[in-house]
Automatic annotation (TrEMBL):
Protein name: MFS transporter
Native species: Ammonicoccus fulvus
Stored Gene3D superfamilies: MFS general substrate transporter like domains
Source domain of life: Bacteria
Entries under PANTHER family matching the protein: CHLORAMPHENICOL EFFLUX PUMP RV0191, PURINE EFFLUX PUMP PBUE
Keywords for the protein's UniProt record, in alphabetical order: Cell membrane, Membrane, Transmembrane, Transmembrane helix
Subcellular location: Cell membrane
């Protein structure tokens, strides 16, 4: 049992790094603006610069990993991620930073989906929900720690955040997962098994949910900072609650899926994420005495964060079980759609936020919440129609 845990912990730490690397810039944008001389809207594009290549390459990265071996694929991904992070830390201009962010995203495409597949092959089927819930918790922690550490770094030098990611990636490069225990499907069959309804549902749901999740990382950070006149560290702490709530509830939510069904629990999680993302954009503007508006914002962010980990868990579960002979490929397809949604989020919602007069910028969070709500409705409809086993 000790050896088993020793093999698994680097996989969970790897689950932390991917979501951390993307939104780490969210609470550093004003400091980056002062250093690089670009607008907030331009600098917010460092998020899709990471996420678009990440999403695009994941359409093929998982299947290539099954073909060439998980160990070598993940090790190389971490090495490139390390070098790209160093380039971000040393970037002398906006253009160099954007290029380095593209390389970070491309490298991460060859780690995250492979880790999900490796975990699935390492645990008993009846514990898969809990295990993926823990992985989702680590992802939520990465997303939570990103604005917090970004804010702390920005109070000294925003470039320090990228030196941190370089160090973690370099360590993980020495601890890649084992190769798949299953015989690889050859030729066209490797891709054909991915054409199934369960994977399609998981992918659509993931894209919708992450339009909301990334808005909570980016727009909520701007919203809290502007409405309550907070500095980068305080903003990072508040937005970090989103991920910490997910960390605290991930295994519990995964256990509920094992017990009551992934579609029912997953659908409720998506609805909850959508509702409380919208609530976050409303309560900060209410005419309440003293610190109550901020208190209610924090509560709404925490509930949305707990729900977000549930959304991750259900789509990972649906994807990784949809094609047992190509788990990495199935997971990478779903994650490609998930992070395509995340990449579109700042493009859609940051301009909407900037176009409004604070505190009316909460409209962007209300709009973002509708996408996760729609994903929850989709899962419950799928359950009702019996298209996918609960």
């Amino acid at each position: 049992m000790t050896e088993r845990k020793a093999r698994l912990w680097p996989l969970y730490v790897g689950g932390f790094l991917g979501p951390f690397g993307s939104p780490v810039v969210t609470t550093m944008l004003p400091e980056m603006q002062a250093d690089l001389g670009r607008s907030i809207v331009e600098l917010s594009l460092t998020l899709p610069a990471y996420l678009f290549p990440f999403a695009a390459l994941m359409l093929i990265s998982g299947t290539l990993a099954e073909r060439f071996g998980r160990r070598n694929t993940v090790r190389m991904g971490y090495v490139v991620f390390t070098l790209a992070s160093i380039a971000c830390a040393l970037a002398p201009s906006y253009e160099v930073l954007m290029l380095a962010r593209v390389l970070q995203g491309a490298a991460n495409a060859f780690t995250t989906p492979v880790l999900v597949a490796a975990i699935t092959d390492s645990v008993a089927p009846h514990r898969l929900g809990r295990s993926l819930g823990l992985f989702g918790s680590m992802q939520a922690t990465g997303q939570a720690m990103a604005p917090l550490i970004g804010g702390l770094a920005a109070s000294v030098d925003w470039r320090l955040a990228f030196w941190g990611t370089a160090l973690v990636a370099a360590i993980l490069a020495m601890l890649p997962p084992e190769d798949s225990p299953h015989k690889a499907v050859g030729g066209w069959e490797r891709w054909k098994v991915l054409a199934n309804r369960q994977l399609a549902i998981a992918s659509i749901t993931a894209a919708l949910a992450f339009l909301t999740t990334m808005a909570m990382a980016v727009v909520a950070a701007l919203y809290v900072r502007d409405v309550f006149d907070l500095g980068p560290t305080a903003t990072g702490l508040i937005v970090a609650i989103f991920g910490f709530a997910g960390l605290a509830t991930g295994r519990f939510t995964g256990g509920l899926m094992d017990k009551y069904g992934r579609l029912e629990v997953g659908g409720i999680a998506h609805l909850t994420l959508g509702i409380f993302s919208a609530v976050t954009g409303i309560v900060g503007t209410l005419a309440l005495p003293g610190p109550l508006p901020l208190v209610f914002v924090i509560i709404a962010i925490a509930i949305a964060g707990a729900a977000a980990t549930g959304t991750r868990t259900v789509v990972q579960n649906l994807a990784v079980t949809s094609a047992p002979s190509n788990r990495s490929g199935a997971t990478s397809i779903m994650l490609a759609c998930q992070f395509a949604g995340a990449a579109l989020s700042p493009v859609l919602f940051v301009p909407l936020y900037e176009a409004q007069q604070v505190p009316d910028g909460g409209i962007a969070l209300i709009a973002a919440g509708t996408t996760a709500f729609a994903a929850g409705i989709l899962l419950l409809v799928v359950r009702k129609l019996g298209w996918v086993k609960a």
